[in-house]
Every structure is written in structure tokens, then in C-alpha cells.
């Protein structure tokens, strides 16, 4: 009898202890879950920057929703409307490495070790971009965008909603977004944090523009661009030197060509909209052919579909966007082209957007709070993106005009010698921008100093000899 009740009581006791233990575990789990609560994040735009940022955030365990205006490129193909390929360099590679996709992108990328200049007679001059082994890379815009979307989607905690066009954002403690969804539906979504990565004509930025004390400017170039093509040879090989960015500089306008993995080149003509040698004048197949015969005869030989491509392809516009602040209420932030669209002549538009992602990711890694990250980034980043905007505008003049100028070519040669002699003291600005992580604002400062230095060197009767004279170069 005694033995039986002892067993029953022990059983009840153990039962209660187990129940208490399970209850404690449950509450601990709740506490940990609360402590680890991740913000719900919404990104507008699944372009290059939005999809890379979604991938980085997904890898950090956030629940991310990405709303994209275009249809899903995995089902319907890519409808980017802009350059078919892009130049990728160091800052971009680093961001892709952080997201673990660098190697996959490098597999398809084509190194371009320098500029190959084509003069009017078809003579070629090669100008390396950096030191031996340094190159920028030609990558496919569609291929890159697709890989980023696939990698983010595969995580499971990143969801893409295609065919959803953001029409307006209502800012507040919890931002509310309005979308035109497929089949004419109008939907609303809220989130803890919103990132506007919806490109140069950003709807998120447009909503910010209508709030107090938001500064904004957009500046169009008087130039447009037209994409054309040099197909591969019959055997599939490239018809021009594959490992170079080709330039036909013609002072007031230029043609460039970047290699693609399929053996073809994407060719881009940059031309004024109006006036002599302008798009306005090239309205018929005959006018287009005559223009190419006169200015780009060696390229024309390789462009069998020139007239058709020229008249069918759209003429793109080029603009610089500057604005600030990039954030609202510590919970909504602009990034990529939405915050800082620039002209493409330094090949740094996408790359500066990728650097945005890498910098934000570093701040998260350091354990900073979201409100601090958003405020600090909005305060500190524009000085660098404004600097690369200025450098890109300046590089247009260099590409279309100076690369064929003998004084400029001498300067480029001397820059290389100077860097080899004094690597600690002198790094060409092109290398700072393309092969380093030196902030863009610092590179712009250096540009001013290097211009002054070369003005003195080139004014000297023996510019090459003076490179040994440290007192002349750097002062006493
Ligand atoms: C001719 C040319 C050549 C270039 N070459 C280079 C180069 O060599 N190297 C380089 O680094 N950069 C280059 N760039 C710049 C580069 O293309 C941009 O900087 C880059 O695409 C910016 O990426 P993003 O994701 O911020 O914007 P985008 O690529 O424009 O992506 C924005 C996305 O948001 C979506 N979207 C837009 N509005 C909405 C909305 N209301 N709702 C939902 N979704 C929306 C768009 O459909 C798009 O998918 C070039 C640009 C041009 C024009």
C-alpha cells in the first residue's frame, strides 16, 4: 500500500518537474526569439543592386520581400532596356565575394586589360588600364541579374514578387507602400524597413521628393547612346581583340565596344542629340551608313546589320542624379541608382551601388543598430557618390577626346613610370577607382593634385628626366 502511493507520488512529482522544465524551455525560447527578432524587410526593385542586397540580407537570416515592376526574367527573359554588358572592377568583385557569388560570375567574365584605340585609318594603339595582371571585366547584365535573383531565391527566406510596380510610399513609423499588381489589382504592404533600389527613376525617391527638406537634382547630358553589335565570326570567335575595351575616339563623340562570351561585341555609340554629327541627322539608312563610312570605317566592315540595328534600337538618355537625405524616419533608405545615378563613362554606376550593399553589410557585421546604420549611411555616403559622379563626367571627355591626344598619352605613360618608381607616393586615379577601395571622394581630391603635378611635369623641357628629381616632384 505504502509502496504503491510512493510510486504514484514520485510519478506525479516527476511529471510536474518535467512540465515545469518544458514550460521553462518554452519561455526561454520565446525570450531568445524576441531578442533575435529580425525586422521584416521590403526592397523595391530586383535590378542589380536590389537583388544583391536581398541576397546579403537573406544570408543574414532576414525575411525579405522584393517587389519588382518587370515580369520574372527566369520565365519571360530579360527586359532591362539598358546596356547589354557592363564593366566590372575591384569594388564590384568584393561585394560579390561577400555575397558568395564572385566565382560564379567570374566564370563568364571577360578580362579587358586596357583600351584599344582605333584611329580614322584603322590604326590601333593599346593603353593598359593598370599594372601587369590588372584588368576590368566585361559581364552580361542579364546573366549577372539572373544569378543574383536565383541565389537569393534559393535561400527560402527571400521572396520575389514580379509584375508589382510601386506607385507611392507613405512614410511613417511603419512605412506603407502601394503597388499596382498583376491583373490590375492595387495592393498595400508595410514593413519594418524599406530599401528603395528602384533605379534612376525611383518611385520611392519620388515620394521622398514630395516631403519637406528633401534636396534633389537631375542633370541630363546633351548626349544620347545607341546600342549596336559586331557579331562573332563564322567560327564563333571574336572579330576584334577580345581582351580589350575598344574605343573609337572622335573628339565630340565616340564609339565603344565590349566583348561578350558568345564571341560578339556590344557596340555603343555616344553622340549629341542635336547639331553637327548628331542623332538628329541620322534618320535614314543612307545617312547612318555615310556617317559610319566617314568616322568608323574599320568598325563598319564588321557590322552587317548596322542600319537595321540603328533605326530599330532605342536612343538612350544619360543623366546624373544627386539627392539627400537618402533616408526617412530611420526606416526607409535609397540605394544604387535610386540615390545616385551617374553617367557610364567610368564604368562605376552598378559598382558604386554594389559598394553601397557591401558598406551596409559591413555596418551590420559590426553590430550597429538599423537606425544608426541608415542615418550614418545617408549622412556619409553621398560625398563619395557625388565624387564618382564628377569623375564619370570628366572621364567622358577623356574617352572621347583625350585618349587620342599625344600629351595625354605621354601623361599616361609617365603616370605608370611614376607609380613604379614611387608606389607609396603615387597611384594613378584610374587605378584608385578601378583597382582599389580608396573612397571615391579621396580619388577626386587626388585627381586635382595629380592634375597640378602633371601640369608642372609636362611643362618641363625634359618631362621623363624630371621623374628622378624627388625635390621637383614632391617638394623639399
Ligand atoms: C549605357 C550604360 C552603360 C553602363 N555601363 C556600366 C558599366 O560598365 N559598369 C557599371 O558599373 N555601371 C554601368 N552602368 C550603370 C548601371 O547600369 C546602373 O548603375 C545599375 O543598373 C544600377 O543598378 P540599380 O539596381 O540601382 O538600378 P536598375 O538596374 O535600374 O534596377 C532598378 C530595378 O527596379 C525596378 N523598378 C523601377 N521602378 C520600379 C517601381 N516603381 N516598382 C518596382 N520596381 C521598379 C526596375 O525594373 C529594375 O529592375 C551603365 C549604364 C548605362 C545606361
Can you characterise this structure?
- With 476 residues, the chain is α/β, with parallel strands linked by helices.
- The chain has 3 domains: 1-33; 40-389, FAD/NAD(P)-binding domain, CATH 3.50.50; 405-474, no CATH class.
- 43% of the residues lie in helices and 22% in strands.
- The protein contains 18 helices and 19 strands.
- Helix 14 packs parallel to helix 17.
- The longest helix has 34 residues, at 2-35.
- It starts with a helix and ends with a helix.
- The structure holds flavin-adenine dinucleotide.
- The site of flavin-adenine dinucleotide has 33 residues, from helix 2, strand 3, strand 9, helix 11 and helix 12.
How would you summarize what this structure contains?
This protein is α/β, with parallel strands linked by helices and 476 residues long. The protein is 43% helix and 22% strand.
Amino acid at each position: 500500500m505504502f509502496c504503491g502511493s510512493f510510486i504514484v507520488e514520485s510519478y506525479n512529482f516527476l511529471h510536474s518537474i518535467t512540465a515545469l522544465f518544458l514550460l521553462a524551455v518554452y519561455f526561454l525560447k520565446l525570450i531568445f526569439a524576441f531578442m533575435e527578432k529580425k525586422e521584416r524587410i521590403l526592397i523595391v526593385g530586383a535590378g542589380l543592386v536590389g537583388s544583391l542586397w536581398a541576397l546579403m540580407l537573406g544570408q543574414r537570416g532576414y525575411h525579405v520581400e522584393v517587389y519588382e515592376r518587370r515580369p520574372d526574367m527566369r520565365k519571360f527573359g530579360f527586359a532591362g532596356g539598358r546596356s547589354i554588358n557592363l564593366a566590372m572592377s575591384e569594388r564590384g568583385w568584393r561585394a560579390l565575394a561577400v555575397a558568395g557569388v564572385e566565382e560564379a560570375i567570374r566564370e563568364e567574365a571577360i578580362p579587358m586589360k586596357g583600351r584599344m584605340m582605333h584611329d580614322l585609318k584603322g590604326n590601333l594603339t593599346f593603353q593598359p588600364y593598370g599594372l601587369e595582371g590588372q584588368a576590368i571585366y566585361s559581364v552580361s547584365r542579364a546573366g549577372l541579374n539572373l544569378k543574383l535573383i536565383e541565389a537569393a531565391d534559393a535561400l527560402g527566406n527571400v521572396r520575389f514578387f514580379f509584375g508589382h510596380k510601386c506607385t507611392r510610399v507613405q512614410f511613417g513609423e511603419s512605412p506603407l507602400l502601394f503597388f499596382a499588381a498583376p491583373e490590375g489589382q492595387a495592393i498595400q504592404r508595410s514593413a519594418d524597413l524599406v530599401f528603395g533600389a528602384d533605379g534612376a527613376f525611383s518611385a520611392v525617391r519620388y515620394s521622398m521628393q514630395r516631403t519637406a527638406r528633401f534636396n534633389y537634382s537631375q542633370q541630363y547630358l546633351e548626349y544620347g547612346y545607341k546600342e549596336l553589335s559586331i557579331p562573332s565570326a563564322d567560327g564563333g570567335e571574336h572579330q576584334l581583340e577580345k581582351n580589350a575595351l575598344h574605343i573609337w575616339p572622335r573628339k565630340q563623340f565616340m564609339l565603344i565596344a565590349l566583348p561578350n562570351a558568345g564571341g560578339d561585341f556590344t557596340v555603343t555609340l555616344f553622340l549629341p542629340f542635336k547639331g553637327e554629327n548628331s542623332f538628329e541627322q541620322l534618320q535614314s539608312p543612307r545617312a547612318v551608313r555615310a556617317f559610319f563610312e566617314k568616322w568608323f570605317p574599320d568598325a563598319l566592315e564588321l557590322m552587317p546589320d548596322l542600319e537595321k540595328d540603328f533605326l530599330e534600337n532605342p536612343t538612350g538618355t544619360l543623366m546624373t542624379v544627386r539627392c539627400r537625405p537618402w533616408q526617412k524616419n530611420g526606416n526607409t533608405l535609397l540605394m544604387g541608382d535610386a540615390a545616385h545615378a551617374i553617367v557610364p563613362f567610368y564604368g562605376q554606376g552598378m559598382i558604386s551601388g554594389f559598394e553601397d550593399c557591401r558598406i551596409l553589410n559591413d555596418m551590420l557585421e559590426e553590430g550597429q543598430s538599423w537606425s544608426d546604420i541608415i542615418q550614418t549611411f545617408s549622412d556619409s555616403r553621398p560625398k563619395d557618390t557625388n565624387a564618382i559622379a564628377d569623375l564619370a563626367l570628366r572621364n567622358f571627355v577623356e574617352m572621347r577626346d583625350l585618349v587620342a591626344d599625344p600629351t595625354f598619352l605621354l601623361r599616361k605613360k609617365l603616370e605608370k613610370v611614376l607609380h613604379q618608381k614611387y608606389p607609396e607616393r603615387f597611384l594613378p586615379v584610374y587605378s584608385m577607382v578601378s583597382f582599389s577601395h580608396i573612397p571615391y571622394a579621396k580619388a577626386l581630391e587626388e585627381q586635382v593634385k595629380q592634375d597640378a603635378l602633371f601640369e608642372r611635369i609636362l611643362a618641363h623641357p625634359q618631362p621623363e628626366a624630371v621623374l628622378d628629381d624627388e625635390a621637383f616632384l614632391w617638394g623639399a
